[in-house]
Write a structure and sequence with these properties.
6-stranded mixed sheet; 6-stranded parallel sheet; 14 helices; Rossmann fold; alpha/beta
């Protein structure tokens, strides 16, 4: 029996290419979905962009057949636009005119005809209602990873005492199979009384010992994972770095101080620092705030400015020999165009060469949005994605389906990529207590 996948609007907003995710089966879009896409298409945010992309793709498919009867897609599947031809009074739902219920009703009606139907939605409540009606419901899981087993960026190695002593003398050792590019190791002797930290060299297949401490713009790592993260951030050959960790683990602070050290150096590596954040509030969005775009962005970028102030006011900075001592205020750096802050919404269409780009709160972005941002990078640009998949404000994403987790799993074996999972909060004892117990 052929399978019929009824798609909710939020699936297409999440991933415009979702039409092609169901092999050679029937993909059914209720007419209500088309109407919702039409309403979204004029918006300037990601919903509008994705709605327009989907509608253009549907328009292209019209040339291949009448959508009511079914138009063949490039992957062998069939796209059907379903116009309701049954009485709404038959729908076993209370609010029969609600758009979500009208979409769900199409799946229910097809099932009543004896067809094999699956309702696909990113909306948990819609899936609950579908199951209550007897309609099999699924989340859209094409771009999903298992966050609980996310790549850490380092592993522990236990050696016999003699081998460990040889490592400390030679500062390197042949790596055992299983290491990925730019992966780190915490190497311990079998008596557990000391520790050496190493980084994997893929070309030489060796673990090279690295020093325990460093200081960047007066900021020092407070644990081994932060030391590993600094190594990735300061390596200009690694073009993409992901920092994943709980609140207070130092992700944003380390990324910003590393970027400032690269652009304020007397021989700067990058022309400027660009910091972007998704506008994903718990309440009203950026459009309801007073003032110009720049003034509105200040509300969302305040955590970034707080970190800048902390770094620039560090007493060590004034004594830093490699840093230009003038203009060491955030306002001056922004006026001189060394620092730029932007909302993710406005990054589309840009080309970003020779810049240090930080995407903060990246866990609120879809895999498609992360791909869009990374594809903006020009020659000489380094990108850092930071975020905590346990703190997601996007209602259609979770720890397993967000773009940050997905990027880590897809790119972890590539030489241009480095990742660190930061497991310890260093902000304060109170912050650590909140993360652990609340």
């Amino acid at each position: 029996m052929e399978k019929n996948f009824v798609l909710d609007t939020n699936v297409l907003i999440h991933n415009p290419q979702a039409l092609y995710s169901f092999a050679d089966n029937n993909v059914i879009l209720p007419i209500t979905v088309i109407e919702e896409l039409d309403r979204f298409k004029t918006e300037a945010d990601k919903k509008g962009m994705h709605a327009r992309q989907v509608l253009r793709e549907i328009d292209r498919l019209i040339k291949k057949g009448a959508l009511k009867k079914g138009a063949k897609m490039d992957n062998g599947g069939t796209l059907i636009i379903y116009i309701t031809s049954f009485k709404t009074s038959d729908i076993p739902l209370t609010d029969k005119e609600l758009n979500d219920n009208r979409i769900l009703a199409v799946a229910w009606h097809l099932m009543q005809q004896g067809k094999k139907v699956f309702f696909i939605s990113k909306d948990v409540n819609a899936r609950i209602k579908a199951e209550a009606m007897g309609v099999p419901a699924r989340d859209y899981e094409k771009q999903v990873v298992e966050y609980g087993n996310l790549y850490r960026g380092w592993k522990e190695v236990i050696l016999p005492k003699a081998e460990y002593d040889k490592l400390t003398r030679d500062n390197k050792m042949t790596a055992k199979p299983g290491f990925l590019a730019n992966e780190f190791a915490q190497v311990k002797p079998d008596d557990g009384k000391s520790l050496a930290i190493c980084k994997y060299d893929q070309e030489q297949n060796v673990l090279n010992r690295i020093c325990d401490g460093c200081s960047i713009m007066g900021i020092k790592p407070l644990n081994v994972e932060q030391r590993f993260a600094f190594d990735l951030l300061l390596n200009d050959d690694i073009k993409l770095v992901t920092l994943v960790g709980q609140a207070g683990s130092g992700k944003t602070l380390m990324a910003l101080c590393s970027a400032l050290s690269k652009i304020l150096n007397k021989n700067p590596v990058y022309e400027k620092l660009l910091v972007v954040r998704p506008i994903m509030p718990l309440g009203k969005d950026i459009g309801y705030l007073p003032g110009s775009k720049e003034k509105k962005l200040n509300y969302w970028m305040q955590p970034i400015f707080d970190n800048f102030d902390f770094i620039l006011k560090t007493s060590v900075l004034a004594k830093h020999e490699d840093v230009v001592a003038s203009a060491l205020t955030v306002d001056n750096l922004m006026r001189s165009d060394l620092i730029e802050v932007e909302a993710v919404t406005y990054i589309r269409g840009r080309s970003i060469p020779n810049q240090f780009l930080i995407v903060d709160e990246a866990q609120n972005l879809t895999p498609h949005e992360i791909k869009t941002i990374i594809s903006r990078a020009g020659d000489g640009t380094k990108i850092v994605l930071t975020g905590d998949p346990d703190q997601i404000d996007n209602p259609y994403l979770d720890a397993n389906s967000n773009g940050l987790s997905y990027t880590v799993e897809r790119l972890k074996s590539f030489k241009l990529f480095g990742h660190m999972l930061l497991s310890k909060s260093e902000r304060s004892e109170l912050a650590s207590l909140a993360v652990a117990e609340l």
